[in-house]
Amino acid sequence: MKGYLILEDGMVFEGKVFGSLQEDTGEVVFNTAMAGYQEIFTDNSYNGQILVMTYPMIGNYGINSEDIESNQPTIKGLVVRELCKTPSNWKSENCLDDYLKYHNIMGIEGVDTRKLVKHLREKGTMKGIITISLDHKQEQMEKMQEMDITTKNYTGDVSTEKPYILAGNGPKIALLDFGVKLNILRILKSYDCHITVLPYQTKAEEIMKLGVDGVFLSNGPGNPQTLMPAVENIKKLLHHKPMFGICMGHQLLSLAFGADTYKLKYGHRGGNHPVKDLITNKVYITSQNHGYVVDEKTVNQKELVITHRNLNDGTIEGIQHKYLPVFSVQYHPEASPGPMESKYLFQQFVYNVQHSKEAV
Ligand SMILES: NC(=O)CC[C@H](N)C(=O)O
C-alpha cells in the first residue's frame, strides 16, 4: 500500500507502508548507525520520535528476543530506504514487518532517505506523520505545528512504575529510571552491583533511606527541562553519594549544578561520533542518541571540569565535579549498538562507589 511521510513544513515523501496501519506523529530524527537497528528501536530515548535510518537496507538480519534495550519499541514510526523481507541470521526469530505490526508501529519503505536527511540537516528536525493518504494534509500540518514536543513529558511512559531489585553482592546502587537501556543494567550487573531501579519521581529522602552506596542517572526521552523536580532531587543527593549519569542523566546532573541545556538543530544519533577525552587527549568513537546538549557558557568551571568534547561540533560530552565523586557523559558507554571502548567508565563509577564507601 502506498504511504507518505508528511513533514510539518509541508514536504512530502512517498513510499510503501509496512508494519501496522496505525498513523502517528512524532519528531522526525535520523540515525546513521550501520547495524544494531533492533537495539535502536527499543531504546526508550526514542519515545515520541519517528526514526529515519540512513543505512540503505534495514531488516536483513531479522529480529530476535535477545538484542533488546527495553521490552517494547516506543518509536512513533520508522522510515527506511529498503525493507528486507527475507531476513537471514542464526539468531533471527521474526521479521521486522511482523515485529512492527505486533507493536502497532507504522513504517514506510522506499523513501529517498538521503534527500530526507539532507532536508532535516538543513532545516533541523521537525515533526512528521506517516499516513496512507494525503487527503488531510492541511489539517495534519496544522496539528503538527501546534504540538509542542519540547514541553511534553515523555518519561512517564517509559520509566518503571514500581521499584524493582536486581540482586547482587557488590555495591548497592539506586538507579533513577528515566527510560533505562537494558545494557546499562547488564553492565552494572556484570560488576555484581545490587541495583534498585526506581521510578523517575522517587524523592531524594526515599533514596537516602535505602542506604545505597551510589546513584546512577539513566538515559531517557524528551527535554531534560521537563524534569525539574528530578533535578531538585539530584541536587539534594549530590553531596552525599557518588553519581554517574548517562545522556539524559548527564543533562539532569548538569542542570542540578546550575548549567543550562538547549536543543541541537538535528541532534547526534549514530554509532561513530568522535569524542575527545580532554584529560588524557585520547579520542573515543562513541554511540550517541541525543537532541539536547549542555550549554558550555553556563557551566560553572569553578566547580566542574569539562572532561569530554565532541570532535564534530565541539559540544560538551562529559563533565566531572572537581571534588565530589560525581561525573557524567552525554554519549553511550553502554553502546548497544556501537563501540564498547568507553565501557571503562562503568568501572570508574564502581571504583568511586567502593572507595567512597571505604572512606565513610
Ligand atoms: N539518550 C538520551 O538519554 C537522550 C536524552 C535527551 N532525551 C536528548 O534527546 O537529548
From TrEMBL:
Family annotation (Pfam families): CPSase_sm_chain, GATase
Entry's family note: Belongs to the CarA family.
CDD domains assigned: GATase1_CPSase (cd01744)
This protein's pathway: Amino-acid biosynthesis; L-arginine biosynthesis; carbamoyl phosphate from bicarbonate: step 1/1; Pyrimidine metabolism; UMP biosynthesis via de novo pathway; (S)-dihydroorotate from bicarbonate: step 1/3
InterPro entries in UniProt: Anth_synth/Amidotransfase, CarbamoylP_synth_ssu, CarbamoylP_synth_ssu_N, CarbP_synth_ssu_N_sf, Class_I_gatase-like, CPSase_GATase1, GATASE
A GO biological-process term: 'de novo' UMP biosynthetic process
Active site annotation, chain numbering: C247 (nucleophile), H332, E334
UniProt GO molecular function: ATP binding; carbamoyl-phosphate synthase (glutamine-hydrolyzing) activity; glutaminase activity
Organism domain of life: Bacteria
Enzyme Commission numbers on file: 6.3.5.5
Function: Small subunit of the glutamine-dependent carbamoyl phosphate synthetase (CPSase). CPSase catalyzes the formation of carbamoyl phosphate from the ammonia moiety of glutamine, carbonate, and phosphate donated by ATP, constituting the first step of 2 biosynthetic pathways, one leading to arginine and/or urea and the other to pyrimidine nucleotides. The small subunit (glutamine amidotransferase) binds and cleaves glutamine to supply the large subunit with the substrate ammonia.
Subunit structure and binding partners: Composed of two chains; the small (or glutamine) chain promotes the hydrolysis of glutamine to ammonia, which is used by the large (or ammonia) chain to synthesize carbamoyl phosphate. Tetramer of heterodimers (alpha,beta)4.
Reactions performed catalytically: L-glutamine + H2O = L-glutamate + NH4(+); hydrogencarbonate + L-glutamine + 2 ATP + H2O = carbamoyl phosphate + L-glutamate + 2 ADP + phosphate + 2 H(+)
SUPFAM superfamilies: Carbamoyl phosphate synthetase, small subunit N-terminal domain (SSF52021), Class I glutamine amidotransferase-like (SSF52317)
Enzyme class: ligase
Record region (CPSase): 1-171
Name recorded for this polypeptide: Carbamoyl phosphate synthase small chain
Upper classification of the organism: Bacteria, Bacillati, Bacillota, Clostridia, Eubacteriales
Alphabetically ordered keywords of this record: Amino-acid biosynthesis, Arginine biosynthesis, ATP-binding, Glutamine amidotransferase, Ligase, Nucleotide-binding, Pyrimidine biosynthesis
Residues noted as binding L-glutamine in the record, renumbered to the chain: S45, G220, G222, M248, Q251, N289, G291, Y292
